[in-house]
Design a protein that fits this description.
By secondary structure, the protein is an alpha/beta fold. It is 34% helix and 23% strand. The chain is globular and about 40 Å long. The model has no long low-confidence stretch (mean pLDDT 94). It binds S-adenosylmethionine.
Length: 205
């Protein structure tokens, strides 16, 4: 049968802890898979803030949400989604102050948008837009400040692409220094596949 993928596991951990009506954040909207999952999880009365630096990613996310809404109640009604064309490192400034310390979940899926600009063929210049260590760590700091006690942050890390290994090392080091009193940390990884993505989950104390 095999174990669940890191992406499925991230969603399961979030779903278990996020009641309907919550306010949550997708830090890397990309193709909108997690944004739609979050919108379903929080349901009507809940809200998702989704960040991406690429307009194309936000357009894909918007289309995915619209398609799901048009399909109606088949898989449950959706919460409100606010799509922000901004870096996740700006989340503390862009999420309303009254929600700080009240966010139920923050999902990060690092790396690049599959099939996005610059990623279509090996010779493309300047290459796909990837998440970067400095902004990722700034966003992780902000996410922990925004989370409610008991809230969860999930971080899917991709060591396998160019630049990904440096970012993975930066995230590993950040987690290693995270005080135990701040959050409980979980690592979900397939050790026989060292280049495959892996998942950190943090439950804020
Ligand atoms: C692996 S994709 C995310 C996939 C997405 N979660 C999904 O479910 O389809 C990573 C995304 O991060 C975005 N990104 C890169 N740097 C960013 C930043 N500083 N802030 C927010 N998003 C960023 C990229 O544009 C890309 O769309």
């Amino acid at each position: 049968m095999g174990f669940h993928s890191v992406l499925t596991t991230a969603q399961r951990l979030v779903a278990e802890r996020t009641p309907p009506g919550s306010t949550v954040i997708d830090a890397t909207a990309g193709g909108g898979v997690d944004t739609l999952f979050l919108a379903r999880t929080v349901g009507p009365g809940g809200r998702v803030y989704a960040f991406d630096v690429q307009e194309e990613a936000l357009a894909r996310t918007r289309a995915r949400l619209q398609e799901a809404a048009a399909r109606g109640s088949v898989a449950g009604a959706l919460g409100e989604a606010t799509l922000l064309h901004a870096g996740h490192e700006e989340m503390a400034a862009l999420i309303p102050a009254e929600l700080h310390g009240r966010i139920g979940a923050v999902m990060f899926n690092l790396g690049y948008l599959p099939g996005g600009p610059g990623g279509a063929s090996p010779g493309d210049v300047p290459g796909p837009v990837i998440t970067k260590p400095d902004t990722t760590l700034a966003a992780l700091d902000a996410a922990l400040r925004l989370l409610a006690p008991g809230g969860i942050a999930t971080v899917v890390v991709y060591p396998g692409h160019e630049g990904g290994r440096d970012e993975a090392a930066a995230v590993d080091a950040w987690i290693a220094l995270l005080p135990d009193e701040t959050a409980q940390a979980l690592l979900y990884r397939f050790p026989k596949r060292p280049a495959s993505p892996y998942l950190y989950a943090l439950e804020k104390k």
